[in-house]
Amino acid sequence: MASLPEGLLDGGVWFRVEAAPTASAVRRTAERLAVELGMPERPTADLSIVAAEMAGNLAKHADQGVLLLRAVRTAEQAGVELVAVDSGPGMADTAYSVGDGHSTAGTLGIGLGAIVRQASRFDLYSVPGKGTVLAAQVWPSEPPAAPWAAGVTRPLTGEPVSGDAYAVRDAEGRRQVMMCDGLGHGGLAAAAANEAVRAFQEAPPGSPAAVLDLMHRRMSHTRGAAVAVAELDPDAGLVRYAGLGNISGTVIPPVGPRRGMVSLPGIAGHQRRQIREYDYPITPDAVVLMHSDGVVDRWTPADYPGLFTHSPLVIAATVLRDAGVRRDDAGVLVARLP
């Protein structure tokens, strides 16, 4: 059996899906990943169908279709996640499109319905004229609770690895997320980002400022990174936020303007003038969105009706598609009050 693509067991691999042979490669790679993760035969067969249909839909219908394939894990089990993103014609009625028998390509029209049936978890967002984002997970047994935070990263065009990374943790009841952007591009930037992730995950429970200070000290042997840490506190109705460098953090309410959060100048691991923590109010129906400077801020939530009722993963992938730049690593992280 062929070896897995580099990075597939970690951050995942993006496929550009423009023709049937690439769609077949996605399915075969998904099957190999399931074997590597030790998934039983039945969920592996379900995954094969999901991967084939998602990649096949991109090949048949999409413009600039790409698919992210990656492992997802809990303490008890490992599964596989697929995120299909395109800038195609979109769907005016997603509920109708998911039903068997609907097709725009002269086929039987069972693709989306098959994905819904075989996937452990499924989410779809589409806007006519903008395209579609479809996310699915396949788990070997009962899926874990829906995640309260998720993200996606994408390397600079031509680079095999991304210097952007994110992480999510629950440290003794403190729900915290981290977004980072390793300086530069390529392997050294990715190494800095990986150290940021390790330091964040291993830090003892503490405030965002305390966690960021520890990360700064742990990253001194790397080239450094822009880093921000946010903590979502549902009891207080607050986001606590501390950042160094050009990570953008925003609270997006269901109506009204976005509210930016403050990151101070600096480079985690090298230049730390000061670390300060700021509090921002948040309501249960708002989201926190964090991104690197590979994502521009020139997009408007009002152009995406209903998007912020969807899963954090679909929100993040939609923003990355429309606001991410190809001349830089890009990453988006989305969280909501658990």
Characterise this structure.
Helix 1 (20-37) runs antiparallel to helix 2 and helix 2 (41-61) runs antiparallel to helix 4 (111-118). The chain folds into 2 domains: 13-138, Histidine kinase-like ATPase, C-terminal domain (Heat Shock Protein 90, 2-Layer Sandwich); 149-336, Phosphatase 2c, domain 1. It contains 7 helices and 15 strands. The chain has a 5-stranded antiparallel sheet with strand order 1-2-3-5-4, sandwiched between helices. Strands 6-15-14-11-12 form a 5-stranded antiparallel sheet, covered by helices on one side. It has a 5-stranded antiparallel sheet with strand order 7-8-9-10-13. Mean pLDDT is 91; it is low at 101-110. The protein has helices at 20-37, 41-61, 94-98, 111-118, 186-202, 208-218, 312-323; strands at residues 13-16, 66-73, 78-86, 121-127, 131-138, 149-154, 164-171, 174-182, 225-233, 238-244, 248-252, 259-261, 278-281, 287-291, 330-336. Strand 4 and strand 5 (131-138) form a beta hairpin. The protein is 27% helix and 29% strand. The protein is of the alpha+beta class.
Topology readout:
Blueprint: E1 13-16, H1 20-37, H2 41-61, E2 66-73, E3 78-86, H3 94-98, H4 111-118, E4 121-127, E5 131-138, E6 149-154, E7 164-171, E8 174-182, H5 186-202, H6 208-218, E9 225-233, E10 238-244, E11 248-252, E12 259-261, E13 278-281, E14 287-291, H7 312-323, E15 330-336
Antiparallel strand pairs: 1-2, 2-3, 3-5, 4-5, 6-15, 7-8, 8-9, 9-10, 10-13, 11-12, 11-14, 14-15
